[in-house]
Design a protein that fits this description.
alpha+beta; 4-stranded antiparallel β-sheet
Length: about 300
Amino acid sequence: MKKYISIFCSVFSILLAVFFMANTVQTQHQEKLAQLQILNRIALDLPHINLANAFLSHSGSEDDIKQYINQLNQQLKLSNLVEVVAIDGISIKAVDERMATNTLVTPSREITVVFSQAHQYSTAFFIVVVLMGALASAFIIALIRMRDIKINSLSALNKDNQEQAENIVSIVKIDLNNKTLGLNTNHELAVALANKPLCFYLALIEFCVEHPTITLNQNKDVPDELIELANKYFYRLTQLGHTIRKRPNFTNSLEKTLSEIRAALDELLIDHPELKDIYYPPKAHGEGSRSRLHSYGLSNISVSDIEVIGK
């Protein structure tokens, strides 16, 4: 709240300062124009003004000059800018140094004319200006407040989205429409996989979800149920319109198929190595009896760990 009060006071002060400065400059310009017009009027009225003239040995009439000045000021009240105080030394009120003095030059003499400022700011004018400045300042504060609320809302929304994104668990998604592997947390990442390893990997996932404790050894035949699942996914690829020459034999070249799956997962999970325990078909280590005990099954995978698009 202190922030907005401070801004309001600053804006209000600036608006008033700018207004009165601009008004003062404009008024001064109008006053100068008015003085020139009055001098021109006095010049035209000189034959009828009873001024003293030493050349003609004429003393003039002070009362006539004051009467002329008063009549002239009565007409000038309409403009409310300046008034004539003195002509040729004859004044209707005291002259001070703050008043403007102009000289009217005639062929035979110079006549001084003194002006004072007639324009004054009324109380009502000040009240109106202050109210308008306050309303304008309040409007600006309202706009700033609305902008701050919008910025804070967007920041809170971005923070919530970021927190939600951080809380989302990364899982592998397989898109049969374009035959790629991806992650649900990175929509731009897509790793292509050939027909045979793609279908076999999908079948392996489904098989291991249903049989989490079974051992799949490369030295033994691939279970018939796993082969059937791989053929099912291959048939689904043909339904989706992928051009395929012939159905692959999923019992042959098992090590090559698994290597292609691992290579794709290596590329996919380069920033998420912790997920390999779930999705990565284990490699055989050692030889002999140790290799015979090895299983390429996905013992840690569950149905919630995978998303299949186009299934």
